[in-house]
Amino acid sequence: MKSSDGTERAGREHVETTSAGRSLAWLPVAWCATRLVLLLWVLKVWVFPGPDVTSDVSVIYQGWYEVLRSGTFPLNDVTWQYPPAAATAILSPGLLPFFDYATAFFVLVCVADLVVLGVLLRVGLRPGGTPRGAWMWVAGVPLLGPTVYARYDLMVTAVAVAALAAAARHPRVAGALAALGALLKVWPALLLLGIRRRSAWAAAVVAGVVLAGAFALSMPGAFAFLTFQRDRGTEVESLGALVFHVARNFGWDGQVLLNYGSVEFLGPYVDWVSTGALTLTGMAFGWLLLWRLRATRFEAHTAADAAFTAVLMFTVTSRVISPQYMVWLIGLGAVCLCFRASRMGLPAALVLAASAVTVLEFPLWFAHVVASDTLGVTLMFVRNGLLVAAAVAAARVLWRGTVPRPEPAPLPERPSARASGTPVSS
Questions:
Q1: Could you tell me the CA-to-CA distances from 220 to 61, 76, 86, 225, 337 in Å, in that order?
Q2: What is the pTM of this model?
């Protein structure tokens, strides 16, 4: 019997190894093919339907580049809403002076994309790993269309993925990378939630203070972005915006305007919905804090699972859900799937589905979203509904996998007849 079981187990392992080998053989082919298509889109060799998404790079980013080169942050531009390290991403095309600014930016984003793939493969090929995460990255990124290469969010995601990959073996490196990511775009600070090692937190604090201090001392206006979002409305693609998409069809007299660099709802009751979104974000943070206090079972994949769940919750409850935010979730979900023991398969699949809908609502049919017509509203309900479902499913998986269930109290023993003094019948 033991011999039979051993033979069967060896056979299964052989099949799995052969299947994984074939999967890995096709991975670079799929990456090259899909990324070539993305580059052809952003370089406008092929024209993607809908509004031009590359103008943010050739106009806005390049404008910031000229200001940053002068040694100061864009102090008078309210659309600059990023932490100081974002300047490194905007200035990075200067490393490739033989290209024009936009082309250099796209090439560097493609390089960051390849770096993420390499990190995911490295994690997935460790003992207990799987190439599922690398495949999620290869398949998920092109679902977002050219937008994913026309924003610097993929660069930030590369830093976050590297931080999670280092969490188990090199906690100090993970902490420093999380701090760098936070100074690039804030959300990577959430990566620290699932890391128990104090050395990671200490490294994050030290790296964050040093980097923030260096930017503050070297360039005026490093933290001016903190005051640039006071009068934001509710962005048309956010969860809260669904209220106004529906209300517009019943006489709501607000407006849809370009505000602070995004298309937002402005008008009656928008402040209420924005406050509600902030309240939901606070509740999400409270749940995450409760989880952190109650969790006792931390495994190799827990840091990735916690980061994926936290970023999902904060994305869903935000006043703004821009299309490029989806690449954060694809990257973090991919890290989760690199671990065979992770149970984040369903939330990751929901994120991929939401990404496929995202490219339909922006840029393909964004005019319908702005008009709040039937197609636009349907797309927003489906996309945001998928994200809500993913956040709930991820939270459930994280809680069940790390928080011990309370053991039921033992039933009181029934006193025996002799102990209670009751006569025993013969």
A1: 19, 12, 14, 12, 42
A2: 0.92
Per-residue burial over 333-348, b = 16 or more CB atoms within 10 Å of its CB, e = otherwise: bbbbbbbeebbbeebb
CA distances from 256 to 56, 165, 239, 244 (A): 20, 41, 16, 10
Measured between its terminal Cα atoms, the distance across the chain in Å is 52
Our separate counts of H helices and E strands in the chain read 17, 3
Residue with tokens 């769940």: 309
> Kind and range of the H or E element at 298?
none
Supply φ then ψ for residue 259, to 5 degrees. Answer: -140, 125
Residues 300-313, mean pLDDT to the nearest whole number: 98
Polymer length of the chain: 426
Structure tokens at 281: 């974000």
Cα separations in angstroms, 13 against 4, 9, 24, 336, 368: 14, 6, 16, 22, 51
Task: Please state, in angstroms and rounded to a whole number, the distance separating the CA atoms of residues 246 and 5.
Answer: 60
d(CA 241, CA 362) in angstroms, rounded, equals 15
Beta-carbon count within 10 A of 210 CB: 12
Nearest 5°: the CA angle 365, 366, 367 is 90
Q: Are 270 and 236 in contact (CB under 8 A)?
A: no
What is the distance between the alpha carbons of residues 337 and 178, in angstroms, rounded to a whole number? 20
The percent of residues in the chain predicted with pLDDT above 70, rounded, is: 89
Distances (CA, A) of 268 to 130, 238, 245: 50, 17, 13
List residues bridging with 256 in a β-sheet.
Answer: 265
Q: Mean pLDDT over all residues of the chain?
A: 91
Q: Identify the band that residue 40 occupies on the pLDDT scale cut at 50, 70 and 90.
A: very high
Q: Give percent above pLDDT 90 in the chain.
A: 82
Residue 346 has pLDDT above 50, yes or no: yes
pLDDT in tens, 175-198: 999 999 999 999 999 999 999 999
Distance CA 310, CA 320 (A): 16
